[in-house]
Amino acid sequence: MLLDLIKKEIAVNVLSLRFIVIFVLFFGLILVSTFILTSDYQRRQQGYQSSRTAHRDALNKIESLEDNRKQVEELIYNQGVYTELQPQPLSIFVRGLEDDLPSQIHISRNLYTSRFGVRKIDEDFYQNPFFSLFTTPDYGYIVNIVASLLALLFVFDAICGEKERGTLKIKLSNAVPRDLVILSKWIGGYLCLILPFLVSLLAGITYVYLTGAVRLGGESLDRLLWLVAISLLYISVFFTLGLLISTLTHRSSTALIVSLFVWICSILVIPNLAPVIGRLVAPVPTLQKILAEKEAVDRETSLRLQRISRTMLEYGNEAERARERIEKEGETRKKKLDAFFQSELRRQIDISKTLSRISPSASFRYAATELAETGTGLFSRFNIGYKRFQERFEEYAEDIDDRLDDDQLGNDWLQVDELPGLEMSPSRIEDVIDSMITVDLLLMVIFNVIFFMAAYVFFLRYDVT
Fold this sequence. Notes:
Layout: H1 2-14, H2 17-63, H3 68-79, E1 81-84, E2 104-107, H4 130-133, H5 139-155, H6 160-165, H7 167-173, H8 178-211, H9 219-248, H10 252-281, H11 287-311, H12 317-356, H13 360-371, H14 376-405, H15 429-460
Antiparallel strand pairs: 1-2
Helix pairs in contact: 1-8, 2-5, 2-8, 3-14, 5-9, 5-10, 8-15, 9-10, 9-13, 9-15, 10-12, 11-12, 13-15
């Protein structure tokens, strides 16, 4: 009997205008999005390769200089070292935070302050501004926003609509168990919803494969398959939620209004309200305040060093040890300020993420961006890699300066392949899956179970008259 009910639901849904509209929307959005973002990825990949070539040519010009001192001055103090961020392959499907990171990093040593200069180099200023004004929705956006809404609209009148038409009363009067009715509506309706979604997605993936923009194999393919699985689970959450709303209402118009209200709260209100609450619950001192305190530490350290220089000039080594101790204390205090700022910031982020996970939209977004390597993990790896880049450049510059002063710098000292660069630790899919299963994936499964059990209980008591 269950199989017959499922076949009936599939037949009714497939022959409806709603199914055709959803198929056209999915196919058009996913295919157009994939087409545009694949071209954009190829453009960014070409820019990455061109930038590397240009910077290597510039280094070769420095290497061609005859005077070592001119080479050091040009490399360390003028041109500096450039490094590029390679575009993530799966950013075709989920852009995430990749656009918020610099495409290139430039570090040089200032002759007077010995500080680092960093700048972001992008070509956005010279491009058509309408590409930024009207951004192309990626696959993650389509699933998060469009698919969730279509799932609710596809099923919002599954129960109350049949009651209004009188078919539900006839069906139950023929001794059809209620549990089989609601189960068949879930299975049949969900299959009809994901069929156009999977066909459209397969067309998009096929296009990416044929263009050769990304080699879909190995870990990239595993990540993509996990992304599809998470998407299907996320869509099922809103489909089950829509079925629950249909069992709680008796008119299709009421169910539609409630569905739209729930969708707005889940997609727009909760994820955007969570960071605001996080700032109120766990405020973080501003970066300007931290910098002001570090400058105060520098001024205090400078005054103590001047006092040491005036009062202990004749003590020799003892005065030198005192100066080193004062400088070390100053650096330790500044590191503590940095650690305090990072600790408070992580606490605020954790609170915001926990609150946002009340909505399944946030769970999907976190899981999708991490699978595509464009989420907060990429941001953290970039910050760690950049700090390591700074440290390595400083060590490299000091070593070159010392060797130059001691006249121990050979003519072949500049080796382009040995220059410090930005090295980011790879993201292992096993770690992503483990963290995702424990939090976001488990939450979406729990949402599904709770919504379906609630729909089942309410339908058992549903008044069909």
